[in-house]
Request: fold
Amino acid sequence: MPVAAKKSARRRRVEPELIFGDLWTFDPAPESADPKLQTRYKLFIGGKLVSHKRGRYFESINPATEKPLAEIALASAQDVDAAYAAASAVAPVWANFPGAERGKYLYRLARLLQDRAREFAVAEMLDGGKPIKESRDFDVPMAAAHFFYHAGWADKLAYAFPGATPVPHGVVGQVIPWNFPLLMLAWKLAPALACGNTVVLKPAETTSLTAMKFAESVMEAGLPAGVVNIVTGAGETGAAVVNHPRASKVAFTGSTAVGQHIMRATAGTGKKLTLELGRKAANIVFEDAPLDQAVEGIVNGIFFNQGHVCCAGSRLLVQEGVEEAVLKRLKNRVRMLRVGDPMDKNTDIGAINSKAQLAKITELVQSGVEEGAEVYQPECELPKSGWFFKPTLFSGVEQSHRIAREDVFGPVLSILTFRTVDEAIEKANNTAYGLSAGVWTDKGSRILKMSTALKAGVVWANTYNKFNPASPLGGYKESGFGREGGKQGLGDYVKLT
Amino acid sequence: MTRLSISKTPKCYVGGKFIRSERGRTFAISDADGAFFAHVPQCTRKDVRNAVEVAAKAGAGWAGRFGYNRGQILYRLAEMMEPRAAELEAALLLTPGVSAEEAKAEVVATIDRIVHFAGWTDKYEQLLGSVNPVASPHFNFTVTEPMGVVAPDEAPLLALLLPAITSGNSVIVIVSETAPYAAIALGEMLATSDLPGGVVNLLTGFRKEMVPTLATHAHIRGVTGAVSAADRETLEKGAADSVKRVKVLANDEVPIDWAAGNGPVSSLYAIRDLLEFKTTWHPVGS
Reply:
């Protein structure tokens, strides 16, 4: 046989596949630790759990079962006012604490979180729908790490800002999202407290439980009354937190629309503002990339926490030459993801946080189909009750498609292609957002070129969705402003004079 | 018979050129005694948009210069201003109540401030950026980047301008409404300073006509300046449309010490206010 014919015969042979994921079903492996939830949660104001004025409660629902977990107090403007009064009263005292003493309280908080880590992890999983392995291995340890990291800064602030005297803002109003309830609380509280501010914090409406459990830790730590105040509720409560005249600074993480609303509401008030908003991150794979690692990174980038991640790599840009290879590997990998009960230790993708979010994801996925992108969803059975969504891949996506422009905030990946480095940069930056980006290539100089050219606050090269308290995170453009983490994040919690 | 002097037609420095307003409008300014001095361009919203366009074009090139080069160009600006100090002093003396000593002091402070910032261009990164010790096998570092087009507002002009251009931003300035002439003179000095055209664009005219456009223009990524409380609110509200960074001081609330060596407008942290931080992760492996 001539050589050429031999080669083509080899090419025709189907590559053997070795996929274990869908060969057998796993026995259930539920986490059994007690989250120690109460049936009803009050507000945390002035160092005490207090009943609220209006007396209304709302339910926190387990998105995996649609069953209520606990009743949460709905804070009114009056309650928020009481929280600010407590925070203002103690602000000068806390600001004048020796830094080392403030730091010791933060170390205590870190340790208290570690002590009850499993309990917090289970509560977080039940309340938010994320798989237990993520809340256990990522959310809770990372939250503790944020307190531990910032504890050490409290008495070293002068070293972080050479030539300037850092002074706390006073009372900080903070509104956090539902995707990483406890971790976002830690991101916001730890630097604020280390810098000598006092805080009024509002957790997201659907995920208040771990914040209220954290209030227990604040009491256990013996933090001076009023340094941390936690008020629960929905948008109205959030507006009261943001608009309160005693807030010297407002920090918000959430959607761009709400961020813009906050900008308008605080205009002319002199309040300092930091925002971490919407996103549509590009994850860029070049032909020379280590494809197996890249595929792991892509999967981690979009399916981590059901895609409810501020930095989710929701736009995959693949260089044309490897499009087919990447897509094939991706489909195989996605087939192996276990979607289902968040309580199960083997679950990869848990429940969508709320019914509203599930509706939004469903609507956007439908628009992707209608606009002509090719959809792939693995065969997998979703639980009968609860809010779940199959991991979804869209190939053949155009830049004009809604799924390539809008923040889906769910387990949905849009795949686009490019030929040249310049085209990749152009497409990656062709968005109003700029929180994060990923680059996969073996070439060092190209990584540095891309990380210079990409308009994004974080660039992951040959990795994705890595976080650390020492590493600042925050957006360009309409993804907001300010940074969280590292010495850069500290700078947003002090006035520099 | 005494010789009749040649008076200058004031023009705005935009895109490296000297322009009149696109509408051709002007407004008259007086000298300290109230006598007519000159007609100054009354720039329009369209002039602002045109300036944004040239500033955006010039931006990438300026940001791409090495800090060392930007420093040399800023130092060159000081060299261009020093011998023309008398002209700047004369411009400042058009404002009633300004003494000769005060004008001299302001010009000297301005030139010295330029030299100070010329030195920052290749140093601020070492103080504001960082290598971050993350708890995983990754090399993680944070660098700063200019925002792009920034729009300061109000005099003392250079005190606001310098932190912006030091790091590579390009700038559109709405100069003082009541004392615009110093900015006309400054434009002529910028033109001879090796600063690429379009990096600094100076517009004379009225606040109320131009501030709303500055606030809402999506290509402007940041606004800095010292403005009235009302203008601050306009800027901050308008900025929400494109999530623009606003770092303005309300000058009718708190008096600003422009001459202070380490105040809100002259320190390293004034440069920081107009920067983005970018963090890059890479695995450290075999």
